Amino acid sequence: MGRMDTQRAHVAGPDLATVAKLLADGTRAGFCLALLDGRAWTATELARHVGVAPSTATEHLHALVRGNLLAEERQGRHRYVRLAGPHVAELIESLASMAPERTPAPRSLPASGRRQALAHARTCYDHLAGTVGVAITDAMLDRRLLDLEHGLGLTSAGATWLEDLGITVPTGTRRPSVRSCLDWTERRPHLAGAVGAALCRHAFDTGWITPIGTTRAVAVTLLGRQALRRRLGLSDELLSQK
């Protein structure tokens, strides 16, 4: 490394390379992708999910906790980890949207179905993603419930729309009210932030969406299709998984 390169390497500022190194390992990246479901997982569960030994998983999890990508929770003798917050979830989702597709061995029909379900509608930490999540965001923009004048933002009409639905968005937190999150399957933004989380919680609470098994995939119910057609003009064809 030349003198000029050495000087550049020691310029004060965020150490982006440290974060990049944490996610450059396939096992650690796999853990972070699994934790996008917003749940807390044990080391054993994560080890089984990515196919590594529990001792290997523990070593990687310690590194992710030290790097502030994961947070640790303890309940009695049990230790759990989760993503350190929505900002980490949005980082992982955005990076996934730029990552090349892997070409694994031919998948079984059930595995292919799971991927299709995730691409159609899923949770991204605590907000909606996939085809349905992006379509909701687009419809809110078309109806001027959101705007892009100064970056993605909630309009006064959008605030009224949420109020009419009975959705209360928490205030007084450091989390942005509205944030754009790049969708890794659609390669386009979906709604995140406190508003995105509140809308997703409302969709679960009212039965608009329901989980599919233990994955992040969700299905839009008949009630949800009716509500989203009435509230946002979304079609049954778009909302129904093929």
From TrEMBL:
Residues 8-103 form the HTH arsR-type domain. Pfam families: HTH_20 (PF12840). CDD domains: HTH_ARSR (cd00090). This is Winged helix-turn-helix domain-containing protein. It comes from Streptomyces graminearus.
